[in-house]
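Purpose: get a first structural picture of the assembly so the mutagenesis plan has something to point at.
Setup: two entries, given in the order below. No constraints added.
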Amino acid sequence: MTTNYKIRKLFPIYLMAFPAFIWFIIFVYYPAILGFIVSFQKFHLISKNEFIGFENYIKVFNTPNFWNVLINTFVIGIFTLALNVACPIIVALLLNEITRNLLKRFVQTSIFIAHLFSWVAIAGIWIYVLALDKGFLNIFLEHIGLHPIPFMSSMKFGKPLVIFLIVWKEVGYLSILYLASITTINPELYEAAVIDGASRFKQALSITIPSLVPTIKVLIILGITEMFKLFDPIWVLRNPGNSQTIDTVMIYVKLYGIDRFQFGYTSAISVLIFLAILIITIATKQGLKYRI
Amino acid sequence: MIKKKQRLRINEPSTGFKIFNFFILLIITLTMLIPLWNVTVYSFTTDLESYEHTLKLWPKQFSFAGYKTLFESVKIWLPFINNVYITVIGTILHVMVNALAGFVLTRKRFPGKGFIVLIFLIPMMIPGESIIIPRYLVMKQLGLINSLWSVIVNNIANTFAIFLMRNYFMSIPISLEESAKIDGASLFTLFKKIYLPLSTAGLATISLIEMVGKWNTLFSAVLYINIPERYTLQQALKVLIVNTESPFTSGLSIPNNAQAAGVIVALVPILLFYPYIQKYFIKGIYLGSIKE
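Result (structure tokens, whole complex):
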């Protein structure tokens, strides 16, 4: 084999890999390194950046506002994850009990669809349900003589609103995932249970749910770091009334980094987020004894 | 057959349980459908009726006034076209780049393969969210800020899509390739004439996932685009529906029917593709979770 032949054979392969390769270099590797460097710098828009050591990192921990958004992120993230794991199981179990296929399909279709909606559309849809002036729920409350509730613009309802809407959006989609694993369960297990006189509830508890554990593990591992990516739902739902309680780390990075040009400071936050995601993912995998 | 019937009879749920089950699922389904229906009806009301806030199940007088305001006064068609542009171009590039990269990974050992695999795999551990600030700086260096290309380019290569395509390509019998090679087919011909046509399901999966993602893009648009002429649809609708004061609406007061029409405009393309999306979305996630 001559070198010439080798090159002719290899060149198309490299050429085909090139677009993805160069994309990762420009938009992942280079920014990752750049972000790490900038996090140790005081960033100037015009003049040259200067290195300031760990000053940005110290500033991150000394900003009360950052702690606030971090707590928001954790609270919203943990509750969302817990409900996103639990609620779809219940829906899947209920769906699984339906014997008529047409009905099952109808329910599935109508609850899955929200997964595909943009957050702007979801906010638009729910404004007409929950808003103080336009929402039919509040109009109804007023109608029966109660005070309308500012679901969309108060501190008290901020986090529950965000969590509820995320669960509302994803429950159908996730329940279909569960449903797919339920259908792979060996039906003989249920027959044996029936013969042993187990009730339906007992069957669900000791056959169906245990066999969903692998799916649950995957969803937890994939979902546990989603909190650090929370942006769209908060961005469309935040207003002066509730931003204090629902602003997440991502919102904070956007507001301080891009709007106020504090690139060094927010890069430090990004590096910390990266480390947090890495550690939490590894810890969760270890904790769940998940291997592949 | 007889055995199956017996099994069904043994395990038949009681009527009481059936009614309970149906009732719960009915509530869940209605929680999904009523808000959506309500906003749809709002979009077809007259200006006057859209200010009477109640649960709307049917318009008193059917009207396209909301859509007219939306397209004529608010000029939503500009962001709409921007959105179509980023979705079409973005999806095409995404599919081409990742299909090519996935194909490269099916090639037998060649020098540098390990390195390429590594370059494709590592980005899975670096979430885009943890490098948004430096990526913003890169976009700035490339002169893409306030260009629609910043949104298009944001998610071209993607590890998940690459490996999904690779798995599809791997399932194609090698004998097909060998016989084509005997006929003197080049690598590109193999890719184009054999591999692509036989993996349409894979191509549909990654293109639909990317299509929905791009159509609903809010985060990267908010980061990179500041001028109203370049707003994507979601950005424009966010302004229109959620906070009505902004340069985009230039002080117009937007009637509720136009806001509701905005929600519907954002959803229509999703609803049109819904049957295909439902089919391929689940598949994609399954392959994804197996891979993780």
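Chain B has one domain: 71-291.
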